[in-house]
Design brief:
about 25% helix
């Protein structure tokens, strides 16, 4: 899916059902690594956390593309 949207997969972060504060882990990892996009297997995987993720990078699922909302981070692809 990364290639279909013009991205190169650089890192894989796996979230288990018992991961403590998964949204914080995703957002912090994306921010600290300069990630251009988080790719989720479905909208169900991100539930109500799309806005938090979109603060640091684009968010892509098979059915949605939510652009980054941070003016400092918009537009970049890697």
């Amino acid at each position: 899916m990364a290639n279909q949207h013009g991205y190169t997969l650089m890192r894989l972060v796996t979230i288990a059902h018992d991961t403590f504060m998964p949204t914080v882990l995703i957002v912090t990892t994306a921010h600290n690594s300069g990630t251009s996009a988080v790719i989720a297997p479905s909208a169900d995987h991100i539930k109500h956390n799309a806005r938090a993720i979109a603060v640091v990078c684009n968010l892509i699922t098979p059915t949605h593309h939510i652009p980054c909302t941070s003016p400092d981070r918009r537009g970049g692809m890697s």
